[in-house]
Amino acid sequence: MTDPAPARTPTGPAEGPPPTRILLADDHALVRRGVRLILDGEPDLTVVAEADNGAEAIEQARAHEPDLAILDIAMPRLTGLQAARELSRTLPQTRILILTMYDNEQFFFEALGAGASGYVLKSVADRDLVEACRATMRGEPFLYPGAVNALIRNYLELARDGRSLPAKAITDREEEILKLVAEGHTSQQIADLLVISPKTVERHRANLLAKLDLKDRLELTRYAIRVGLIEP
Question: Are 96 and 84 in contact (CB under 8 A)?
Answer without folding.
Answer: yes
